[in-house]
Amino acid sequence: MNKQRKDSRSRGIEWTDWTWNPTGGCFHGCTWKMPDGSITQCYAKTVAEGLAWNAYRDGFEHHYWREHVLQEPLKLKPPSKIFVGSMADLFGHWVPEEQIRRVLDVMTAAHWHTFQTLSKHPNRIPEFNPFPPNVWVGVSLPAGHLMSPHGAARALTIYLKHMAAIQASIRFMSIEPLWFDAGHVLAEWADIHGSLPFEWVIVGAATNGRSVYQPEPAWVEKMLDVMDRFQIPVFFKGNLKWDTWREEFPALAPVWLIELHHSVMC
Ligand code: SF4
Fold this sequence. Notes:
Blueprint: E1 2-3, E2 18-20, E3 23-24, E4 31-33, E5 39-41, H1 43-49, E6 64-65, H2 72-75, E7 81-84, H3 97-109, E8 114-119, E9 135-140, H4 149-164, E10 170-175, H5 182-193, E11 200-203, E12 206-208, E13 211-213, H6 217-229, E14 234-236, H7 255-265
Parallel strand pairs: 2-7, 7-8, 8-9, 9-10, 10-11, 11-14
Antiparallel strand pairs: 1-2, 3-6, 4-5, 12-13
Bound molecules: iron/sulfur cluster (SF4).
């Protein structure tokens, strides 16, 4: 597992304490077209093909199963937030069900931690309902290979439908980068359904190497407007420029519920 630094020189992934990758690699091939026309690719792919090439010798578009790291959260005693699959999509269509269940078993056994998963394949997630109460289940804003904003808006509506079927104590949406007017789509969903199918949101800017591309201010305003309407906590990534800073987290599931689930399952 990798500890995420919180000092001023390097903040790592700000919304978690550790990353843990019992699976690795991803086939989604996300790329984004930047406002200046340049194309940027997924950060994890850049890391896998650069700094971490030794652990990704078959490339990033390859499935890696790392049984030898499976027990690591059980050895970490201080209660921590652990992002599962920072270099992968745990619920990707290529990941064998048995491996996902083994990862979930460890999350259940390490009940003192809070695990955070993130996927761009939300249609598969409800197959694993109900999730242990110490697992926060996240879905990323749609992005494929140079997907258009119009296509992403349509995909987001489908993602929301799948998120509504997830049974987890906390469902969250990672909107990093905020690359189209996603708040508008969320507002339309909320108007029809009377609520949103998640309890936490992360919002960030787009990056390409050292270049940072801020979202349109109107997109951020719309997003905050919808989140505040439903009292959904908002966490800004450090790369977002905004006047009123927000680093909010959802409330943890009560300890008694987590311990009850652990005693029933283990
Ligand atoms: S889903 Fe995540 S890890 Fe996979 S290519 Fe897209 S951004 Fe990268």
